[in-house]
Structures are given as structure tokens and as C-alpha cells.
Specification:
Among the domains are: about 45 residues, no CATH class; about 190 residues, Helix Hairpins (Orthogonal Bundle). The chain is built from 15 helices and no strands.
């Protein structure tokens, strides 16, 4: 029996873990599939579009040729011409005149564009040009942004739980160290022994004996023998019924040959897991300085790794780029030479956005608390003082 019960327990534990992880995996998988479908769609629409060289492009080439003919050997004069004429001419140029759309809208380039859309970063380096692409971009963002925020909220719960538990464990360890320094060894050992004895007394739901019932209900002893025996008998029967009912409920829970009950319980657990999304963020309470430190360390790690393939960026530029990305500002002033390598960094972006999201939520709670204190303080100051005069 012991050998057969162990595999059953292992299967039940695996099922519990699976159904606990299922909502989180479902959200992440939905976002990944959504990103891949968007990449296929935009690479097909924007990458296969035909570039028609308009009359403006021909005028641009004629003006550029005319300016180049008037260049002289004097470098100072050429600089003045460049500042006045060539700079104004280059501002009228369009990117489609010099870049092939297929080079921009590859699968990885389109995937990078989709990630910048539903994460609301929007660097502005890659954007749809066709009318159909613009309409589909709006529709894609309309469904992708809520899905991304749902993933951020869900993963934020996990991070909030991990950070809060780590912080609480650190506080417990700190209090234990301080307590061990303050209290003497003998008194602390006695208190620990008393606590361990109190914790070792576990209430077990078993049928009570006659002597235990008489000890619990001392008033029964004072009654006549006839009534006393009848009351003891009724108490024992009631206690036995409660015990059999508990045992039956436990057997139903552990019974593995009833798929209907098991299916109903697993479905209710999955629904409860969906209902619990965002609850841990509401309970999250750690010092704001700690969150700022976590963000600084997190961005610094990425800023040290990113220049390995983006050779134009140093540590400071990479730090700036990561901060602008994780806060979803996305100016687009820093362009990446290898965006497909940065896509492998997408897990870093999602986790980093969650950390920043948690920090913003924490700062929002602190600001609300500050506003409440200021308003209550101003309200107390404006309240007129009541002078009570005795009659």
C-alpha cells in the first residue's frame, strides 16, 4: 500500500503544481503567440509593399546635384553651404528612398516592432507606412496593450510575493540577531523550550473517551445516574458522528477514482487563481528606497551586458537606453544595430517593466498616504477652536 500511495501522491502534487502554474503560463503563452502572429502579419504587409519613387525624389536628387556642383575647395565655405542648403534638403528626404522595406520588415524586425507596440515603448524608428498597416497597428495595439498589462499584473504578483517574503525573512533574521545579542543564553533557551512544547501539542480529531468527556463537562457528574448515562451516551454518539463525517470528507478529497469531483475541484481552483490576480500587489509594502535600489541594480546589470553586441553604446548610454525602455518612454534617440539580439532580452524587458510597475504602484500608494496626511493636517488647522465657557 505504501508503494502505491507514493506515486499517487506524486501525481496529485504534480497536478496541483500544474493547475497553480496554468494561469501564469496561459497569459505568457498568449502574449508570445500574439507577438508571433503580429510579426508574421506586419512582415507580410509592410515588407512586400512597393516603393514608388515620386517626383519629390527626383527633385531631391536634382537639388543635391546642383549643390554639389557649387562646392568649392574652401572648407569653411562648404560648411556654410552645408548648414544652410544641404541640411534643409536632407530634412525633406524620406527613408523609403534609401532603404528597402524588406530589410527593415524582416520577421525579427517585425517582432521587435510588435513588442514596442504592446509594451507602449514606441521608439519611432520602425513604423507602418501603408494605410492597411496603420489600421492594423491600431487594432493590434487595442488588444495587445491590455494583454500586456494583464501579464504585467500577473507576474507582478509573483515578484511582489517574492520581494515581500524576502524582505520579511530579512527582518526576522535581523530581529533574531538583535534578540540573541540582548537576551542571555539561559532565559532564551527556556523560552524556546516552552515555545517548542506549545507547538508540539497538536489537536487531533479523534473520538473522545468517557473520562475525557467527563473532564470537559464536569456538570454531568452532578446529575442522577440515569440521566447522566443517557447524556454521556448522546455526547459520545454526536462526537462519533462528527468524526465519521470528517473522515468521510477526507476520503472523498483523497479519492482518485471520481473524475467528476476532481474535475470540479480543479476547475474551481483554476477560477480562484484567476480571481486572485492583482491581490498581492495591493498587499505589497516594502520601503521605496529598497525598490529604487533593486531597479538601479537591475538596470546596471543590463547596461553592463548590452555593449557586448551594441558596440556603439557605452555603460552610460546603455543605462539610459534601458531606463527609457523599462519606463516605456521610448524616445527613439538611441537606435540599436542588432534588434534581434535584443529580442532575446525580451524576458529581461518584461521582468524589468514589472519591477518598475511595482515601484510606481508603491510610490503611488506613498503619495496617496502623503496627500491624506497633508489634507488632514490642513483640515485640523482650519478648524475653529471651540471655547467652552462654564455657565
Amino acid at each position: 500500500m505504501a508503494s502505491t500511495s507514493q506515486p499517487l501522491r506524486g501525481k496529485r502534487a504534480c497536478k496541483k503544481i500544474f493547475w497553480a502554474v496554468f494561469p501564469h503560463a496561459c497569459f505568457i503563452l498568449s502574449l508570445v503567440i500574439y507577438a508571433f502572429l503580429g510579426a508574421l502579419m506586419f512582415s507580410h504587409i509592410e515588407g512586400n509593399r512597393k516603393v514608388n519613387l515620386s517626383e519629390e525624389y527626383r527633385k531631391f536628387l536634382q537639388n543635391l546635384w546642383y549643390i554639389s556642383r557649387n562646392l568649392s575647395d574652401n572648407m569653411t565655405e562648404n560648411e556654410e553651404i552645408f548648414k544652410d542648403k544641404i541640411h534643409a534638403l536632407l530634412n525633406t528626404a524620406e527613408r523609403d528612398w534609401f532603404v528597402n522595406p524588406k530589410d527593415i520588415w524582416t520577421f525579427f524586425g517585425s517582432l521587435f516592432f510588435c513588442c514596442t507596440v504592446f509594451t507602449t515603448v514606441g521608439y519611432g524608428n520602425t513604423y507602418p507606412v501603408t494605410r492597411i498597416g496603420k489600421y492594423l497597428c491600431m487594432l493590434y495595439a487595442l488588444f495587445g496593450i491590455p494583454l500586456m498589462f494583464l501579464v504585467l499584473t500577473d507576474m507582478g504578483d509573483i515578484l511582489a510575493t517574492v520581494l515581500s517574503k524576502s524582505y520579511n525573512e530579512f527582518k526576522k533574521l535581523q530581529s533574531k540577531i538583535l534578540a540573541s545579542k540582548l537576551c542571555s543564553g539561559s532565559t532564551c533557551n527556556k523560552e524556546d523550550e516552552l515555545k517548542s512544547r506549545a507547538q508540539s501539542k497538536v489537536a487531533i480529531n479523534e473520538p473522545l473517551t468517557i473520562m475525557e468527556l467527563l473532564n470537559i463537562r464536569p456538570g454531568v457528574k452532578r446529575k442522577p445516574i440515569k440521566y447522566r448515562n443517557a447524556e454521556i451516551f448522546e455526547m459520545l454518539i454526536a462526537r462519533e458522528k462528527e468524526h465519521t463525517k470528517l473522515a468521510r470528507n477526507r476520503s472523498i478529497e483523497r479519492w482518485s477514482s471520481c473524475p467528476e469531483l476532481d474535475r470540479g475541484k480543479t476547475m474551481s481552483r483554476v477560477i480562484e487563481n484567476f480571481d486572485k490576480i492583482g491581490k498581492q500587489l495591493e498587499k505589497f509594502d516594502v520601503p521605496i528606497v529598497l525598490m529604487v535600489l533593486v531597479i538601479f541594480v537591475y538596470i546596471s546589470c543590463a547596461a553592463a551586458i548590452l555593449p557586448n553586441w551594441e558596440t556603439r553604446l557605452d555603460f552610460q548610454e546603455a543605462f539610459y537606453f534601458c531606463f527609457i525602455t523599462l519606463t516605456t518612454i521610448g524616445f527613439g534617440d538611441t537606435q540599436l544595430e542588432h534588434p534581434k539580439f535584443f529580442l532575446f532580452f525580451s524576458l529581461y524587458i518584461i521582468i524589468g517593466m514589472e519591477i518598475v510597475f511595482i515601484a510606481f504602484k508603491l510610490g503611488q500608494d506613498r503619495l496617496i498616504g502623503l496627500y491624506k496626511k497633508v489634507i488632514s493636517f490642513c483640515g485640523e488647522k482650519k478648524m475653529p477652536s471651540k471655547n467652552i465657557h462654564p455657565k
